[in-house]
Design a protein that fits this description.
It is a single chain. With 564 residues, the chain is an alpha+beta fold. It is built from 17 helices and 25 strands. β15 and β16 form a beta hairpin. α1 crosses α8, α10 packs antiparallel against α12 and α16 packs antiparallel against α17.
Length: 564
């Protein structure tokens, strides 16, 4: 049986830059927001002192959380639990296991488990007495329904499988008895247990899972077993959750039993980031999601906490379309890798607390390698590589070949703070070696539909978390329904083999060896262009908020939060 241990406390980062002057959307906007959050009971005053006893949690109060956007529909399979929606999903649902920010797996709804038959069979023992918010039992039958849908989806109903669930060799899930589930795979699948803590692996009532997609889009129909339930919502405006009085099955790793301390949690949609920041500074809200990184030093100097948890997953960078156009050339892909001055980006865009990428995997992932030499800044090498394949520098300062200009469109990722500033610098760095680059700004509201038809953009900004390295193989090629990030399909047989070996490794030592090989291969082939370590979720938190925890995918958990 796995033993639960509390996650390590995360300290706020030290900051080396100091700036907090930004235009506000207007006094009227801030005043209107203040009135609206006050109506939700959110005001607490940024200057409220921590002199009160902050060591003993207190029950009661409403926490107001400001966020840029929520979707118009709440179908978990369609939304794929985006960076924004995941905040709310994590409060109304539970998971089978808890994964800490360091990747440590501990019990939750599954109190223990066995791994058998060379990691092809898993036995899950469930906590008895757990219920969904509609009163139905979270038993073995419900878990089987969830796991099967995560692994297979239901194409006939338009329900997708969970993108990074280790579904390659999934055979079936079976209820052995009321509180025991057996899950079988055709080949070893070491990533199964950790991925039960992935933010896409949320437990929903079988009643919800059986609904047509059109009805699942109604958030009130999303029945979870979490510490909060949805009381009401107005699409694109506000979403109010209230605590479950009978909740008593939080993850032991968080060190809290019983219901949440907060009475309620209200999410308010405020598109303008400076308005959100100013509302928290003024005391009209307690949390702002995704503040501007350059504002962090001044906010911390004023007594606010700015949490910058790094998730387990892929670094901030570009997936490269290797199938067509200039990037079908290995030399062009490698030239792009060596043309980026990452240190300049780090020093210009970010305060202290961000780190350079050393692979295409975050360095807090246990299997992460340090292959930074494969994509080090070397503009002379970039120029040499481009010359080798006939991209000649013209009198206009750009490179040309067969009547074409070597040019790219960079699309900042609206889910990740400061990628626009990153891309502006990268465009300047590309220009120095004769590559023309321009930015295309796609609003968050349009980004999902944009990425669905983004084949014309051979450099696409990536932000993606995962819990276990075993699932990485599922994005590299199209093999067995993989997500085919680099548009190579199954044409790269080496990548096909490595993808299969990652997902089917029978021991951690075998997987570690393959993990090193796949990282080196992807970078050597120029399939991925790393930039910096990914900090996708940034939380500005008022001084009177305590006890917020962050999990392995960097989401804030307010089950343990309380107000002084």
């Amino acid at each position: 049986m796995t033993q639960a241990t509390p996650p390590a406390e995360r300290k706020p980062p030290m900051i080396r830059r100091n700036r907090f002057y930004r235009a506000v959307a207007g006094a009227a906007a801030v005043a209107a927001l203040a009135l609206s959050v006050a109506a939700c009971g959110g005001g607490s005053g940024a200057a409220s002192s921590n002199a009160a006893n902050t060591s003993t949690p207190k029950d009661g109060g409403n926490l107001t959380f400001l966020i840029q956007e929520f979707p118009t529909g709440w179908v978990s399979s369609e939304s794929n639990i985006s960076s924004y929606e995941g905040n709310l999903w994590g409060e109304i649902t539970d998971k089978l296991v808890y994964v800490s920010s360091t990747g440590q797996v501990s019990p939750w709804i599954a109190t223990s488990w066995q791994t058998e038959d060379n990691a092809t069979k898993f036995i899950l023992h469930l906590k008895p007495g757990v219920t969904f918010s509609d009163g139905s039992p979270l038993n073995a039958a419900a878990v089987v329904d969830n796991i099967t849908l995560w692994a297979k989806g239901d194409p006939s109903r338009g329900i997708a499988k969970v993108g990074l669930f280790p579904a390659l060799n999934f055979e079936k899930a079976t209820a052995v008895n009321t509180d025991t589930v057996e899950v079988d795979f055709s080949k070893p699948t070491l990533g199964f247990i950790p991925t039960l803590g992935y933010h896409g692996s949320i437990l929903l009532s079988p009643k919800t899972l059986a609904l047509p997609v059109s009805q699942q889009a109604n958030l009130l129909n999303e029945i979870g077993s979490g510490p909060f339930v949805v009381k009401s919502y107005q699409t694109g405006v506000s979403y109010t959750l209230v605590k479950r009085a009978n909740y008593n099955w939080g993850p032991p790793a968080l060190g809290h039993t019983g219901p949440a301390y907060l009475d309620s949690l209200t999410y308010k949609v405020v598109a303008d980031e400076s308005t959100r920041e100013q509302a928290v500074v003024a005391g009209d809200a307690q949390v702002d999601f995704n503040v501007t990184p350059s504002d962090i030093p001044s906010l911390e100097a004023q007594g606010f906490t700015v949490a910058t948890p790094r998730y387990l997953g892929f670094v901030d960078g570009f997936e490269v379309d290797a199938s067509a156009g200039p990037t079908s050339s290995l030399q062009v892909r490698q030239a792009l890798q060596h043309a980026i001055n990452r240190t300049q980006i780090l020093d210009t865009v970010y305060p202290k607390g961000w780190d350079l990428a050393t692979s295409f995997i975050q360095s807090n992932v246990p299997e992460a390698a340090n292959d930074s030499a494969l994509f080090s800044y070397d503009p002379s090498l970039s120029e040499s590589l481009l010359n080798q394949v006939g991209w000649v520098l013209g009198s206009d300062g750009y490179r040309h070949k067969d009547g074409q200009t070597l040019s790219f469109t960079l699309v900042p990722n609206p889910y990740v703070p400061s990628t626009q500033q990153e891309d502006e610098l990268i465009a300047q760095q590309f220009q120095k070696i004769g590559i023309k680059a321009q930015l295309k700004i796609v609003p968050l509201s349009d980004y999902a539909s944009f990425t669905a038809v983004s084949a014309n953009y051979p450099l696409l900004s990536v932000s993606r978390s995962f819990i276990d390295f075993s699932t990485v193989g599922g994005v590299l090629t199209s093999l067995n329904g993989g997500q085919n990030w680099f548009a190579v399909g199954t044409s790269d047989k080496t990548l096909d083999t490595l993808s299969q070996e990652i997902e089917s490794a029978s021991s951690t030592s075998e997987r570690d060896t393959v993990a090193n090989q796949v990282q080196k291969y992807v970078l050597t082939e120029g399939y991925f262009i790393p930039v910096v370590q990914q900090v996708q979720r940034i939380y500005l938190i008022a001084p009177n908020v305590h006890g917020v925890a962050y999990n392995g995918v960097a989401y804030a958990n307010f089950y343990t939060a309380w107000l002084s």
